[in-house]
Amino acid sequence: MSHTEGGAESDKRMLRREFITVRNRLTTDDLREAATSLAERALGLPELARARTVAAYVSVGSEPGTLALLDALLARGVRVLLPALLPDNDLDWGAYAGEGSLARVQHGGKMALFEPAGERLGPDAVTDADVVLLPGLAVDARGMRLGRGGGSYDRVLARLERAGAHPSLVVLLYDGEVVGHLPEEPHDRPVHAAVTPSGVRRFTA
Q1: Distance of CA 60 to the CA centre of its chain
Q2: How does pLDDT run across 139-185, given as a tens digit for each residue?
Q3: Cβ–Cβ under 8 Å, residues 182 and 146
């Protein structure tokens, strides 16, 4: 690893702590209001209006809330795929069929996640998605996303690339998380858009 890559990773660790600290100050009312606005903004995206299959995720803790958005997509007749974390941090996928189709899964010392309780479709199922909704902590002016550091979505993006799949990549964030510049590493891939409670930011990538 070169000095700059090591520097980028330690800079990312520091930034992650900062963004998570700000998120953890949000109240229950803040979270609820943000989730409602985020769903409205996202549902207005032309990419989601056209989508037949959307790969998404269930928000946990202080992440921007996604359940209202997932239910609205389901009501539109969209096939919604949700991830299930594998032991090596890769992601398997299952179909969402409403809140009752979720199971709370504790992954070792990590936070508990809500995952699809039904049939597993395999890690390659994501290559069928027209839109992939990504979690993140921030995005910069070039569309570079700061993830939580587990590497799961780096694998997803690499899998899409290998398959020649080109879904729209959309990260869901709070308003203060679109920043000027984030450190990047060679494997980082830009997203196409960020949706926040107050609007949509598009990137030229």
Answers
A1: 11
A2: 999 999 999 888 999 999 999 999 999 999 999 999 999 999 999 88
A3: yes
- Is residue 205's pLDDT more than 90? no
If pLDDT is split at 50, 70 and 90, which confidence band does 6 have?
Answer: low
Ramachandran angles phi, psi of 152, nearest 5°: -60, -45
Contact 149, 188 (CB under 8 A): no
Tokens coding 79: 């096939």
CB 36 within 8 A of CB 68: yes
Q: Which residues lie across from 94 on neighbouring strands?
A: 82
Kindly give the residue spans of alpha helices, DSSP state H, lying in the chain. 3-23, 28-43, 46-50, 67-75, 152-163
Do 34 and 64 form a contact (C-beta atoms < 8 A)? yes
